[in-house]
Amino acid sequence: xxxxxxxxxxxxxxxxxxxxxxxxxxxxxxxxxxxxxxxxxxxxxxxxxxxxxxxxxxxxxxxxxxxxxxxxxxxxxxxxxxxxxxxxxxxxxxxxxxxxxxxxxxxxxxxxxxxxxxxxxxxxx
Length: 125
What we know:
The protein is α/β, with parallel strands linked by helices. The chain contains 5 helices and 5 strands, in the order βαβαβαβαβα. Helix 2 runs parallel beside helix 3 (63-72). The model has no long low-confidence stretch (mean pLDDT 95).
């Protein structure tokens, strides 16, 4: 049996972590989660991942700062990142545009599960 792709959820809402974990398990993925950006970066450096689902608005550190840190780290920079945020990309077009080359997809909460799974498949290809 091949190993399921490991998807790191970096999110500061425990309910959203639970929901995303359920969706990922049902989709055939192995969810790993971190509560907030600081813990997310630490766990990524320790455990790695095949894909990152990243929230933007977190209490401890912004998702953009986490994304920048991931892409500056030679061991992490090749991991594809999907943004999953309640904040629409048009609310902050300059920041989104400045980071556009660093992430593979952007989903606005509440998202459609099928859309999330489709973006995950595409990002992992």
